[in-house]
Design brief:
One of its GO terms (molecular function) is 1,4-alpha-oligoglucan phosphorylase activity. The chain is an alpha/beta fold. It contains 21 helices and 21 strands. Strand 19 (478-481), helix 18 (493-499) and strand 20 form a beta-alpha-beta unit. The protein starts with a strand and ends with a helix.
Length: 583
Amino acid sequence: MSSMDDGQYFYHPLENIEDVELFYEAVERNHLTKAISPERPYTYWTIELYDQKNGIRGGGGLGVLAADTRRVAEKMNIPFALITPFYPYETHQTIDGDAVRDNHVPVDYKDFGFKFIDTVNVKCCDNLCRLDVIEKRFKNTRIIAITEPNFGELYSGMSGSDHRLYQEVALGFGGYAALKLLGLKPAIMQLNEVATFFAALARLDELARNGMDFYEAVVYTRKHTLYTNHTLVQAAEAEFSQEQFERFVFPNLKSLAVKKWLADKFTDGRIKLSSVTIEIAELRSGVSKLHARVANYRDIAGNKVKFKAVTNGIDMDTWALPEIMEFYRSFGILDEYNMPSGDYAEKIENLSSGEIRDLKKAGRKVLNDILKERPDHNGRVLEFGNDDFIFDFKRRFVDYKRPELPFRDPVRLRNILERHNAHYVIAGRVHAGDKTMREKLRKLLDVVSTDDYLRGHVHYIPDYDEKLAYGLSVGSNAAINVPIVGLEACGTSWMKDVANLNFLISTHDGGVADASANSYLNVSGVDEEEELDMLYQRMEEALIASENDFDLEYILQQQLKAYLPVISGSRMLKDYLDYLFPA
């Protein structure tokens, strides 16, 4: 037993995934900790939330992960507050010819069940900026958001721009003020990426200005702050000038000691948010085993920073077909908390080819229903038969994920698809400022348009969102996940494929590398040419295996055995609690 803040901690860490009884007893008694309570929740800070059901549309995996984490906390009965901006505009993408167009659509939080609480203020550029505090509650969890009419859309402007800094300052100082307004005190502050740094800075400032010795305030803040990094390269993190901080940050600090502490963090008039976030958080986590091992981050003194590995997970009830979840539970593979049972690996062997095919038929129907309202880039409304094999690429359209890789040899790709009458579906959002990937998408679609067979069997579906992601997860047959090895921190799209009994064709990177490369259809090679050859081989293997009962069962059973513990969102949250509250 150990203490946390002024409460006693009653949560015991699990030695392994089979040791679940004590954990569940603690959950049922609401005795995870006296420090975690409705008044002292686990606070989770994110610049992005992707939760369309609750009216907030994000930009990618970070936002989806945030929504999943809150849902898992609700199932596990953990008092949990997610703090995020509500952007008054959401971005939709369309195809105009072969060009991607962004459309910014206004949204109103009142349409999604959020309740207005009050207003708080932040100071920026000699102005007092008023922010609305809105809230939506779900049993023991809640979403607390700050918003204002000119807040703009998610990721507007460059990462080091004034507007981006304003959004981040508003989330940090405004979000922390919102907690105080609601009478909440964080038991822990989990900062997802460096854009949320200012929340911890606001807490440090409050402690220091209320009479706590400055160095004690620093220690207290550090011990109660977890920085979760979702990227591998520090150079990609945001950087701001001291002049920008003078206009947007320092006016919100009341403690002279905190102002001096922060001013000392600048080098040549610049500050990198990752470095200062490392300084304010003693607890640091990476989002996969590989990420925690290879992430190259250094503190202000130049020392390499160590990260605790807590691999991301998904809320399986959200992302897996209900019929598949029923199968997992009825055979005792998953329990009521979606944790793998002690003998889950043995029970997975009950999964037969006939059941797999029936479950995939059910998923295909869901996909076809979604596609009725989602025409492809040629304006075609797609409907796939139960015997049609679908490969998909459904993830952010960024360079290191290599969405164009299978199209490097269009003749070979066409031959593979044509031999088996297969289809290839592409879905993914291109960031507004990413001219490189917009051009790569244009060239990819040009390749498709010049080949009669590919034109009828390769489909790009614009405006990728949660609904389409779900449909492809449950209705496709094989997922293509080929990031350049060493650049993917975790990824979660592939987790949804494993849960939904799809073949995983992937490089050994991110969270996929948590298990052996023999656990799935691995793509590897000494160079990209070898990787491409292996990718085509693996696509052929998946097509052939889908027609053979033994191979179908074996490959999908091996994937589930290896990855069911990895993809479990309940396992993820348990790992965080183990790290935050060690016995």
